[in-house]
Every structure is written in structure tokens, then in C-alpha cells.
Model the fold of this input.
Amino acid sequence: MITQLIKKGENQYIEFKTSFQKEVISSVVAFANAKGGKILIGVSDSGDILGVDVNKESLKNWLNQIKLSTSPSVIPDIEIESVDDKNIAVIDVKEYPIKPISYKNRYYLRKANSNHLMSMEEIANEYLKTKNSSWDYYVDTMQNFSDISLEKVNKFIQKIEKNFNKTFDENPMQVLQKYGLVREDNITFGAYLLFVKDFCLISGVQAGRFKTQTDIIDSISLNTDILTEVDELIIFLRKHLMVEYIITGNPQREERYDYPLDAIREVVLNMIVHRDYRCSSDSIIKIFDDKIEFYNSGALYDNLTVEQLLSNNYESKTRNKLLALMFKECGLIEKYGSGISRIKRLCKEHNIVEPKFEEVSNGFKVTLYKQKISNVGTNVGTNVGTNVGTNELKAFIEANQPLRVSAIKEHFNQVTTRTIERWIKQLKEQGHIEFKGSKKTGGYYAKTK
Done:
């Protein structure tokens, strides 16, 4: 067992030490703040088994040093293993439930095969995760009720009522308290971002239409509530999209934007909901002739990597739990953790190349490309016009169900009523959607297969 661990070498869960020293305690803290791990004392960095002189008394002293040097106190398990007649001390550190742990007022975190000194942001994040909370749930001591708009609060409540087809019996203040937007008779950071009355310093977004990297022909600067920012950004982006005409065999040709609107909407929502609002930099959107770049400052949350994100093999966690919940209650997002795969799928269905997701300058950037997937040109015609339209409508219904025809027409306002009716008919015949409820209050739902 031990020899197999040694052969694997040092990694995120294994550390080698030739003797017990202060660096061992740093490793204990790093493992406790991460996912746990084992420290093998008596093994060189290269994996050579050197052995260590140890007895019960020395083990007791080691445990005592670790206990007294860590806060909160960590008491790991220590066992002696014999390999080739040499003793190796195995310190088994479990992930600690209360984080972060410190050693001499320093906080370490295990990353890859080394111990990383945690930043203030990482320390705060670990503390909030331990409390099963997030930054946006905390009271904003710099703002008060005079800084938020009651009109925006009422519109927000109406969105939730419409989404769930219900009416709140409570007054607006009670609704805010129910959702944790108001705590201890004060507004939270989440409430401030959702309902700020005027200028909001921490929600800045800059968007521009570029002809070159430096030549800007149109721009918009937003510092307002985040719900308004979503709407304004989508309007600005849509304004600068090109429209192509598809010949379908019908008397009237159909229009299609060069990017899928639902993918753009998904990227914007992800920018706003998952942004680290403690960073001072604004979010930035750049529209070029051949691509659109979306940039947020702040690294991916909870040590998530781009590789994990693209593989869709990760536990979905969000930096701003309250904001994510409120956007979900409003019907703006459907479920957590599905945004990236949805964006990729929408781009593929729109026959444009796969978007790019990357960490850049301690931030996260998404790039949508206008370039068509190769060999698409041979398929343009009746089938493409129909398939693209029905696919977009199907995705739109899946993300916003239930949907009435009026809402569908409003979303696809560049498409004729006859075309929309044809799309709906085709999706119903194919068994992808169905109408539920009465003619007055019902709507279209996506069928689950």
C-alpha cells in the first residue's frame, strides 16, 4: 500500500518529507483546507525510502506540536509503516469541516503537488463555504434602504409571481426577508445589486463594437442594477448582430442572426450571476467583425478548472448563491451548472464553430465565433432554415417553459407569425413540445423522453 503511494510520487494528496519539521505542519494545514491527504515522513522528494527514527513518545510530541500550532486545532492520525526494514511515519490528514485552518496566522491550501499560501479572497471564500453561505447573503454596511428602488423590488416580485403563477400574500419587505435579501433590518449585498436605485460602483459593465482592437464605433457603459444590465446588454448586442436571410421555399424569406441569441443570453447571464463583485474591475464585452468576447475579472470559483468545466464533470457550486437563486426564481436561469454545455449546444445547432472558454489575466473569458462549421454551405436551404428555427424555438421553450405564443412571437420578433406557427406545428408533430393547461392560462412545455 505505502510502496504504491510512493511510486505515484507527490501529488495533490501525497507529500514526502525526510523528517518532521515546521513544513510538515504547513502541509497538514494545506491538506485540511483542501480535500485531505497523507504526509509520508522518511521519504525523499524523489521517492527514495530513507526511513525515520520514531517511537511512541516522538509521535505524541508531533501530534502535540500540530495541535498547538494550528487554529482551529487539527489532530491527524499517525501510523508507522515498515518498508524494507525502514520506518515511515504516515500522517493522515482529513478534510477539516471548519475552514480555513491556519498555522502561525498563515493559511495554506493544497494545489497540485505543492502548498499554496492563500489570498484574502480564498480565505474569505473558505469561510463562507463553511457557513454554507456566500458574500451576497451578507449585510451591506455601506448602503441602506434609501439606496434601493421600491419600484424595482415590486417588478422583481412580479417576475417571480409570473414565473410560478402565484401571488405573494406577504408585503414586499416580508418577501425580501423570506428570500434572505433583507437581514437584521438591513439590505444585503445581493439586494443592493438587484435593486440599486441609481449609480452602482461595483456592477460596472463596459460593452463596445470594435472595428479593430482599438477602433470603437459604438459603446455602452452600465453601472446599475444587474437585472437591468442583463436586458440592456442583450439589446446592445442584438443591435450589432448581422442578419442573414434563408430561402426556405416559402414566399417570404426567413431571417437568422449570425450568432444564436439564446447562447448570447446565456453568456450574459453567466457573466452577471457568477461575477466576483469584490473585484474592482468592470466586466467587458467586445464585439468584433468575426467574434464576441465576454470577460469577467476573478478566477473560476472553488478551484474549478477550465478542463473540468468543459468536461461537465464537476460539482456545480456558485460564488453568489443568493443572486443565482433570485435569477432562478425569476425564471431567468433554469438550473445551476448547465450554462456551458447549453452554450456549446446552441452554437453547434446554429452551425458556428465551438466557443472558447479560458482563464486570462486572473479572469474568465468566453469567445463566440461567427465562423461557420465546415461543409455547412452544402446544407443551406429548406432543411437548414427549418431545422435552425425549430431548434432555437425548442431550446427557448426548454429554458423558459411554460411559454405562450405571444411570448414566443415577442422573442422571435424578426420572424413572421406564419413561420413561428409552422415551427410549433413541426415540434408538436415530432413530439418535442406539448401544450398544457387552458387556452387562457396554459403554455407550451418541452416533452421529456
About this structure: The domain at 140-240+259-369 is CATH 3.30.565.60 (Heat Shock Protein 90). The chain is about 35% helix and 20% strand. The chain has a mean pLDDT of 87.
